[in-house]
Amino acid sequence: MFVNVNPGSYVAIKYWPDADKPREKLMDKGVRALSDAELLAILLQTGYRRKSAVDLAREILRLAKNNLSELGRLDVRDLRKLRGMGKAKAVTVVAALELSRRRQATCVHKKNVIQTSADAALYFKPMLADQYHETFYAMFLNHAHKVLHVRCISSGGMSSTVVDPKIIFREALELHATKIILCHNHPSGSLRPSQADINVTRKICDAARLFDMEVLDHIIVAETGYLSLVEEGML
Questions:
Q1: DSSP letter string over 219-235?
Q2: Which of 41, 93, 123, 136 could bond 184 through an S-S bridge, CB–CB 3.0 to 4.6 Å?
Q3: What does DSSP assign to residue 34?
Q4: Distance (Å, rounded) from C-alpha 60 to C-alpha 144?
Q5: Under 8 Å CB-to-CB from 12, ≥6 apart: which residues?
Q6: Is residue 141 a contact partner of residue 147, using CB atoms and an 8 Å limit?
Q7: End-to-end CA distance of the chain
Q8: Which residues pair with 152 in a beta bridge?
Q9: 68-84: b or e for each residue (b if 16 or more CB lie within 10 Å)?
Q10: What is residue 192's DSSP assignment?
Q11: What is the pLDDT of residues 93-143, one digit of tens each?
Q12: 171-176: long-range contacts at Cβ-Cβ below 8 A with a sequence spacing of 24 or more?
């Protein structure tokens, strides 16, 4: 049976033409032919009352301001605020987003030698860019710039986090690291370093010299990109 799907009218997906059904469309035309809402609808599987899975997917995207980076920041509690988003649907969406992040991070982490600030930014961005709170990381490297370990040093609020240099250097000494790259995120999206960012960087750089170590850079990441204090001439 052929049913016209008109905007504003509800017709269950099972009655849609096969060419419009998300799963059939994916099989016939490939995954790139689907819109963001159609891809989400496949994860959701079902809608809610007089709301198709595609309609529900569109509501999720509106909640994320039609921005996939913002979508990555939503958690189960955020998604369950929408009518029709039960625990199972919310968990499925969050799990899919986390798999996407891990895939991106895995591709980057295969490169275990950091040569440039851009290399470091690409390493950190999948870990930090979607977070709502400010988090500070340190990357420890040997003399050949090979990554030995990456550790979260502190996690704080929306606009700041407290960094204890002792934690950084204790870890560096245990790993026999000779070089360190610092990184933190700005949940606001602004890449401009604060005076506190600059001060803590200089403090850590001064301490590193006492241990015959070198701070190679301090990277700030956000949804909008990254900033290197070295590239900006601030370090």
A1: EEEETTEEEETTTTT--
A2: 136
A3: S
A4: 46
A5: 52
A6: yes
A7: 68
A8: 137
A9: eeebbbbeeebbeebeb
A10: P
A11: 999 988 887 776 665 555 588 999 999 998 898 888 777 789 999 999 999
A12: 171/138, 171/140, 172/138, 172/140, 172/211, 172/213, 173/211, 175/140, 175/148, 175/149, 176/142, 176/148
- Is domain 111-228 given the CATH code 2.70.98.10 in the classification? no
Place of tokens 């709502």: 132
| Of the candidates 208, 202, 222, 235, the residue with the CA atom closest to the CA atom of residue 141 | 208
**Residue 185 and residue 131 in contact, taking contact as beta carbons nearer than 8 Å:** yes
Helix (H, G, I), strand (E, B) or coil at 225: strand
φ/ψ region of 17 (left if φ > 0, alpha if ψ in -120 to 50, else beta) reads: beta
Strand order from edge to edge, sheet including 225-228: 147-155, 135-141, 179-185, 214-222, 225-228
Domain ranges in the chain are 13-104, 111-228
| CA atoms within 13 Å, Cβ hemisphere of 62 | 8
Q: Look up the pTM and report it.
A: 0.60
> For 132-188, how does the pLDDT look when each residue is reduced to its tens digit (9 = 90+)?
789 999 999 999 999 999 999 998 766 668 899 999 999 999 999 999 999 999 988
Largest CA distance in the chain: 78
